[in-house]
Amino acid sequence: MSKPRSRLATLYAAFSLVGALLQGGKGKTHESAAVKCASHGPLVEGFGPTDVYTAAGGPQARVAVLMMHGLTKDGIKDHRIPTFASTIARGGMPVILPEFPRMKRRLMSFQDPEDVLRVARAIPQATGIDKVVLLALSYAAGPTCLAGSKMSDEELAGILTIGAYYDVEHLSEFTATGGVASYGDKQPTAHDAAKQLEGRWVFLSSLARWLPDKRDGEVFSIGAEAWKEGHAPPWGEVREKLSPEGRNLLDYMTLTDPEAHAEARHNLVPGVLEAFDKLTLRGKLGNLTAPVVLIHGRYDVRIPFRESILLREELSSSANVNLAILDAFVHAERAYGWKKFWRVAGDGIKLSRCGVEILGWSV
Questions:
Q1: Of 138, 159, 182, 303, which one has the fewest beta carbons inside 10 Å?
Q2: What is the pLDDT of residue 277?
Q3: Which fold, 7-166+281-359?
Q4: Is pLDDT larger for residue 191 or for residue 77?
Q5: From CA 303, how far away is CA 172, in angstroms rounded?
């Protein structure tokens, strides 16, 4: 039987999450002998390998952190993750990192929420810990919130998201145009056309799976692979190889005017619109009662911070929700070092307030 945790150990466990966030993937925590990282096989069928970060000594927390890595080609080996996971684990909360094969291939799917739920419910058998905190980066936050809405209070201690989206249509519109028509005069303050080119290929290769002509999927997949190699084909060349439905999807993701983009959505095939609907969070989180902390960078160039504001509004009637918009963060990582002292210090104050909330999760 494990020793009961002291109040100080519990406090340390909770604020280790805050420390991980403040580091924002920048640090050398994973090189410390205070944390062990062990690689295991898949937790459930269909997943890749699993990394588990644990403290080298001391009492173990009553909850484990299940971390979802988002759309990154490096999966659980993404450069930000060792620092995040090690800093959290030093506080005594084991961090479990399963690799999502589709997300590693930078593909979105309406099966992703079910995958998060399956792996979350595999944690008790794998670790002996009955309750989890769900920690999700970027795109993975959406499927994670949807999965959390199907979990009981006995299973789920809380949800922590970094750079979450709320509405997939908003996300596609921002990716294509740099704005979102429904935001009105509250448009994003940051946009990076180079980053959006990547996002366009992610959307095209993901959504092409629901087009009636399977050859369209092959065209978009080949284009996405060429983009990864640094020589993406011109849009005009891609367009010539597509069916009418494929061209409509390409037009939707390459328009630059938000108003025209919203109109072009009407030309998308039902399968694509269904995928949007299944991954959008609007109106689907009423059963989520676990506490939620939302973290978003003010200068996020991939997912506008207004998405986390909308998500907070969605959750405020059913869950205890806290939101911190960080000034030293971009997308799921800290962009500014201590040369921007006031930004980092201000973020630390905001995150400490979130830490008070998180404190109750680890008890």
A1: 182
A2: 94
A3: Rossmann fold (3.40.50)
A4: 77
A5: 10
